[in-house]
Amino acid sequence: MMTTPRHNFASNLVLAQTDADLQQQLTIHFGTSDLSAPNKSPLVTTTTDVMNWVVQKARSMYKAEPEKLVAAISSSATKNALAVWSGSGRDWIVFSEGLMELLRDRVDSVAERFEEAFPDLMNTTLMQRLLTRSPLPGGFTTSFSSFLYFAAVAFFTGHEAGHHLAGHKSQYPRQAHAENSESGAIDVDGAWLIGQALERDADLLGITLCRIAVSSLLGQLWEVDEAENLSADERKCFQRVLAALISTGALTAAVFIKPKSIDWTNQPNVLHPPAVARLLTLAASISLAIKKNFHDLDGFYRRWIRLMSLEVAVGATITPGTNADRIHQERIARGGELAAIRATGIRKALHDPMFRKYMAQLDATIKEIRPGLKPRM
Ligand SMILES: [Zn+2]
């Protein structure tokens, strides 16, 4: 059996600096083509370690030329992540330092909310053992917040790798897709549904890659292997912690999303979707992945994870002093559960019958365009 060639950030830096198409896309989306070496700072080093893990796994899924998949770090403070299809034949994944800092600064608040939302998980022996580990380097306050960061970066990297693996290249005529840019977006020409269907497609692969990375990390830290050496109770606990961590981490990665209320019926007519649509489809994709892979969790606990991880991730995005914050505080004062997702209109959208219809539309759209894609796997 052939082994997958190792991905190495330091040697790719030279490739990245001489890749004209990549340089051009960096300038468009970051305003600079400056790139960072993996040893630039503890935060960059930790992030490139996580990315390496995911890129290596994604490479192993390439049916040919896995070394085409490469990753780079933009030195920019702009918060963005890209998938770039270069004329050099390379499939680039780019993550900016600005995005790293944003995620790093957000995970402490997410970790605090997680502890409140999942007290049953915090008290387990496995979790207690996890909390005695030192945080990953990079300026994290607690070990748990650094693990949430790991999950968020693993999801983001997996999502970009997903665009490459699923062969979305032909759908992006400008040869690049940015998670947080207007330029290069395909939905400006009215192909809104296609754009969202591609995001969901990439999310599903992103979640798979994130799950594999986080489960290896936890297995190492706990010195356990999910498949072996665990009693039935321990296995259930492992799956609960893993599912909650992946779900919350991936939703935290969706930091650009500013929750607002939604009118599904107007969806096809707007140029850019209300961000809540993206958040909810992501939550639905996560639920699907958990259902498929965590057989020791019942439907009740899966729904609990879906709601609480949304509550935790959304709660951390509410800016003090805003209108959403005011409604949020009122909800909390009334002793209301799920105050954040209620205050932002997400709870209502979740129960909107149009949401199911919208998800079905996304599935039908990806089915329609699938024959025209050239997947790498
Ligand atoms: Zn994307």
UniProtKB/TrEMBL annotation:
Highest taxon, organism lineage: Bacteria
Stated name of the protein: Peptidase M48 domain-containing protein
Record organism: Herbaspirillum hiltneri N3
High-level lineage: Bacteria, Pseudomonadati, Pseudomonadota, Betaproteobacteria, Burkholderiales
